[in-house]
Design goal:
This protein is an alpha+beta fold. It contains 22 helices and 19 strands. Strands 13, 14, 15, 16, 17, 18 and 19 form a 7-stranded mixed sheet that branches. Helix 8 packs antiparallel against helix 9. The N and C termini lie far apart (about 65 Å). It holds the Pfam family GIY-YIG.
């Protein structure tokens, strides 16, 4: 990259974006003083990290975005990294939100649920927990002995008789029965103690009450308390008390392995180590560690994340800062304080206990990295497909229709080797657009996908053969986007007259087609990389078929709805806009229906009566 006129770079805080010759963002950075930070890239190459030197060889232009504070620059940087996923940024691959317990204490009858989002709604949150399975098992166990309601607020308000859980002794049924609010809140407090890691304190309280009930010859109550004590001992995961404090904190450790950098994070709540998580970035050395740590904090904690009151990092500003920004942790603390709504401190260990926790996080992260699979299927695909980097975001598409009607293109997204279900998309096409021509539909889909913008996939997998692949590639070429991502297709093996794989052509396994290559790419049967592609394809196929069947069922149900007095095409459309199924429509109360635009009480009552056939 040729030197630029530094006088054109602002001196205020902000974000800078390096772009390659195709205008694709290859690196995003933030700075307290943009001009000083950009100027640092034009120092002698031997003073820069290998990653920075590689980035500058690809960069052709730079764009800056001004912010009023460094904190705003930090938040904007994290947002742009997630949007563009630049090649030379240190990316947090696994940035999903982990499971938390949510206790809605604003409601008169609090309810315990699982969630992945932290909202400023007055609820109390416990966690996070990396294993959703363990969290669900714990929730089930809690519900068995602490009889809190399970139904949603909406169902609770409309219920007229106790549910099944009440009849099997797992719910007080406050929705319908006249129960003691004081007794209910006592159960809520016990659940809070349990989830706060104060299981010993809870067991002491329950034991005392059990003996008191037994002495009063209230044997049924004593038996219930005994069962609660057993449930606490069985269902609470083994947790270690690591610090004598009531504060919540996350402790981050970072260490170097032979193959890259490993990062570990310990989740400590009320002095109890409740869970841990590890991350690994191949090919990085300790010289990249300061940038990695800061990038991790910015990307890991988001709007819906649980943010503790303290984040302990291995180094302070003396190591992480430089002449362009001597106190980077200040901006991180300000950003996290804004996210949490309360003061958050980000700092290096302040005593021996915290130093030992950082060492523990580091040692466990390095150990975890050593036991990971040496070569992942995605790394193998990178080599076989000639990709510059290991693919992270993979988009898989499949077309489904019945004789050209109700055409749907399902798009399933994988991040790494795991499906990202919140990224799934369905594209609907009219019967005129589809017409049973899969090639035409895929071309139209590619046009829509380009219009929707980033994040772009690293790998695009088409369910089909060479014809489907060419339909997509031709659109990319027409828009000058051939280098946008790697595109391949996967087709099932050809069958002979007997229904078996046609061995005469060597087509005994699924075939992988690449643009500009006449023969399929040979992947060994049962190879991890082929199994991963097949899993992606099968998941997308099921999703696409499901969306298509839902569209067919929706059209049939719409016809049924229009037979109800008061529901015409316009009203049916409004109902589908508010509810995802006819079952939901039927369960809606008159008051709920009146919230729909243009529906008064009389019409709502008529619709409610008409929907009774679906209850």
């Amino acid at each position: 990259m040729e030197p630029i006129d530094l006088k054109t770079i602002p001196v205020s805080p902000g974000v800078y974006l390096y772009k390659d010759a195709n205008g694709r963002v290859v690196y995003v950075g933030k700075a307290k003083h943009l001009r000083k930070r950009v100027a640092s890239y034009f120092r002698p190459p031997e003073t820069q990290t290998p990653k920075t030197r590689a980035m500058l060889r690809q960069a052709q232009s730079i764009t800056t975005l001004i912010t009023t504070t460094e904190k705003e620059a930090l938040l904007l940087e994290a947002s742009l990294i997630k949007k563009h996923r630049p090649r030379y940024n240190i990316l947090l691959r696994d940035d999903k939100q982990y499971v938390l317990f949510k206790l809605n204490k604003k409601h008169h009858w609090p309810r315990l649920t699982l969630t992945r989002k932290v909202l400023k709604d007055g609820s109390k949150y416990f966690g996070p927990f990396t294993s959703s399975h363990s969290a669900w098992q714990t929730l089930k166990a809690i519900h068995k002995v602490f009889k809190l309601r399970r139904c949603s607020d909406r169902a609770f308000a409309n219920r007229v008789r106790p549910c099944l859980y009440h009849h099997i002794g797992q719910c007080f049924a406050p929705c319908c029965l006249d129960i003691s609010h004081e007794d209910y809140l006592e159960q809520v407090q016990r659940v809070e103690l349990l989830l706060s890691g104060k299981s010993n304190e809870l067991v002491e309280v329950l034991t005392e009450k059990m003996y008191a009930a037994s002495e009063s010859m209230e044997y049924e109550t004593a038996a219930q308390l005994r069962d609660q004590i057993k449930a606490v001992e069985v269902t609470v995961e083994k947790q270690a008390a690591v610090i004598p404090t009531a504060h919540d904190m996350d402790v981050i450790g970072l260490g170097e392995t032979d193959n890259g950098l490993a990062l570990g994070i310990l989740f400590i709540r009320s002095g109890i180590l409740i869970d841990k998580k590890y991350f690994f970035w191949a090919g990085l050395g300790l010289e990249e560690a300061p940038e990695l740590l800061q990038s991790f904090i910015a990307q890991y904690y988001g709007v819906n994340s649980f943010v503790p009151s303290r984040v302990v990092v291995p180094w302070g500003n003396d190591v992480l800062g430089d002449d362009t920004n001597p106190e980077p942790l200040v901006a991180h603390a300000e950003a996290l304080t804004e996210l949490r709504g309360m003061l958050v401190r980000v700092a290096s260990p302040r005593n021996d206990t915290e130093s030992k926790l950082v060492t523990m996080a580091t040692a466990n992260a390095i150990d975890d990295a050593k036991h990971k699979r040496a070569v992942s299927p995605l790394a193998i695909l990178q080599k076989r497909l000639g990709m510059a980097e290991e693919p992270y975001r993979t988009e898989i598409v499949d077309v489904s229709h019945t004789s050209g009607k109700d055409t749907r293109v399902g798009m399933v997204v994988f991040e790494g080797e795991a499906p990202a279900k919140n990224e799934y998309r369905t594209y609907a096409f009219t019967d005129e657009e589809g017409g049973g021509d899969d090639y035409k539909v895929l071309a139209l889909w590619m046009e829509r996908r380009l219009n929707s913008g980033p994040p772009w996939p690293d790998l695009l997998l088409i369910d089909g053969g060479r014809g489907q692949l060419n339909a997509v590639v031709s659109v990319l070429e027409a828009h000058g986007k051939s280098d946008l991502c790697t595109v391949i297709s996967i087709a099932k093996a050809r069958k002979d007259e007997s229904g078996r794989a046609d061995r005469r052509k060597g087509n005994i396994e699924d075939r992988i087609f690449l643009p500009g290559r006449s023969n399929p790419l040979q992947l060994k049967a049962g190879a991890p990389e082929l199994l991963l592609l097949q899993h992606m394809r099968d998941l997308c196929h099921d999703y696409s078929i499901g969306r298509h069947r839902k569209a067919r069922a929706g059209r049939a149900l719409t016809g049924e709805l229009q037979r109800i007095p008061g529901i015409g095409p316009s009203m049916a459309k409004k109902l589908w806009a508010h509810y995802s199924s006819v079952k939901e429509m039927a369960q809606a109360s008159v008051a709920d229906l009146m919230r729909i635009d243009g529906v008064g009480k009389k019409k709502a009552e008529a619709i409610y009566e008409g929907l009774s056939v679906f209850r």
